[in-house]
Amino acid sequence: MTSRNCLAIALALALQPVAAQADDGWSANLRYRHEAVSDDAFARDASADTLRLRLGYSHAFVNGFSAGAELEAVAAADGSYNSTANGRTTYPVVADPESFELNQAWLRWRGERGGATLGRQRLLLDNQRFVGNVGWRQNEQTYDAFSADFSPREGLVLRYSWLDRVHRVFSDEAIDPLARERDLNAHLANLSWTGAAGTLAAYGYWLDDQDVATASTRTLGLRYTGQRAFDAVKLGWTLEYAKQRDHADNPLQVSADYVLFEPSLSARGLTWKVGWERLGGNGSTAFQTPLATLHAFNGWADKFLVTPANGLDDRYASVSGKFGSGRLDGKLGWTVAWHDYVADRGDADYGRELNASLSFPLPAGFAGLVKLADYRSDGFAHDTRKLWLQIERNWP
């Protein structure tokens, strides 16, 4: 099937009427994106125009049971980029390959104090620093898993997941079989308590990667978040620490720390943040988060999807807010962020990065986004600039 035919089918399906409740009936998502990449490591620039359609259906049965499934199709208007599936390695990577696959298929039970889900599903833990769905990419990361949650009292939630397989964003069409999916035997436990003083989470993630033994790790950590209002000013904070060691059949000796310190201040419609995130490294191994929504961390240019062997210190600052007038009053959202990267071991300078974005509503329920990443290398990787133009809508 040609790219043009895929685009036509996706548009035809997306424009069909969809009306249902979120937990019972049809759902759909349509997203068009243009991504342009200029990477000094390549003689050619990449340009990708992709269209993603998700179409799902769920049905609620009696006694709290429900079932659902979701298909996902990605089509491309041209091939001037390396999708990891098209073999065009002379272009920079834009990890949005053409694909058509089953994104989710699950059976679920929900009760008064908890529930459980069995099957292919999306998993989002805390801020997705360790486990997420990589929602930024056109092809979503999902898991063949069993997950359960239990809340014995208000504010206290215990979550557990067993992962059998992860279906990665490079899709079933990726040339490298290990980029398509990984065979896992992973146990994830997360206990969180929310009260007047904030939210405290304790977690343990035992990841046994049966395809890549060196990716098998055990991670134990604590995360504390909260905010407090003082008249027109709101102060917020995130503190986190984790320790990662080798696990299962990993032949490497891993012993690395993770530290996050991020205070914030909101006043007069602006939110200011400063942060320090450290992923430790000893020159041979480093703290890794292979199941994370990595695009959300360490800059949108995606230069640190794998932590360098000497680790990474990311010192950053950001400001965000909303503006607009008339019908657009408060509906235009913007963010500007600055990152300064150095090695955890040896203090080598990795470079700096500027990120900026603008989101805005469009007619007929669509939403638009313009986004920019500008990474300037200082001996690590190469100067890279990325630009995104995106239009998206959800039904219902």
UniProtKB/TrEMBL annotation:
It comes from the Bacteria. InterPro entries: Alginate_export_dom, Porin_dom_sf. Keywords: Signal. Residues 1-22 form the signal peptide. Residues 28-246 form the Alginate export domain. It holds the Pfam family Alginate_exp. Gene3D superfamilies: Porin. This is Alginate export domain-containing protein. The lineage of its organism: Bacteria, Pseudomonadati, Pseudomonadota, Gammaproteobacteria, Lysobacterales.
